[in-house]
Amino acid sequence: MPTSINADEFKAFAAKLKTVDRKLKTRLRARIRKVALVEGPGIVSEGAEGLPGGLAGHVQSKGARPTVSQTATGVRLVLGKKAGPQIGKLDEGSVRHPTYGRPPWVEQSIPSGTFTEAIEKRAVKLREGVAKEVESIMKELG
């Protein structure tokens, strides 16, 4: 399976995709979303393993449902939400929380890079899965 697609081939694919039926575009987006969503919960679970106390459980329960954002040029896997854990901040190595559930709020250091490591372990698989789906659609288009 390829991990990349030739830029000229992709430009031709993108041009063809603009002219095809809307249902085919929707099917492509759904197939790409599925590839990304399969890995999301594993990334959150593995990234949360080194977090202190009940934080790991909280992150796993609230951040385990990732969303996929797609543009004309890429796919973004979004872990966590505004109302849930801020996985980006956690990955930087800090968490802000109230002391024993009450003010004042304090900043606490935690292991950094755990989510980045979890994503990097799966990056090749994610790229290959997306490339496979794009190639499959390219073949369907002819």
Quaternary organization: single chain
Overall helicity: 55-70%
Strand order of the largest sheet: 1-2
Q: Which regions contain 5 or more consecutive residues with pLDDT less than 50?
A: none
What is the typical, i.e. mean, pLDDT? 81
Structural class: alpha+beta
Order of helices and strands: HHHEEHEEH
Termini Cα gap: 19 Å
Furnish the topology, listing elements before pairings:
Blueprint: H1 7-19, H2 22-48, H3 55-63, E1 67-70, E2 75-78, H4 87-92, E3 94-99, E4 102-109, H5 114-141
Helix pairs in contact: 2-3, 2-5
Overview of the molecule:
By secondary structure, the chain is α+β, with helices and mostly antiparallel strands. It has one domain (7-141). It has helices at 7-19, 22-48, 55-63, 87-92, 114-141, and strands at 67-70, 75-78, 94-99, 102-109. The strands form two sheets. It has a two-stranded antiparallel sheet with strand order 1-2. The chain has a two-stranded antiparallel ribbon with strand order 3-4. The radius of gyration is 19 Å and the shape is elongated. The relative contact order is 0.20. The mean pLDDT is 81.
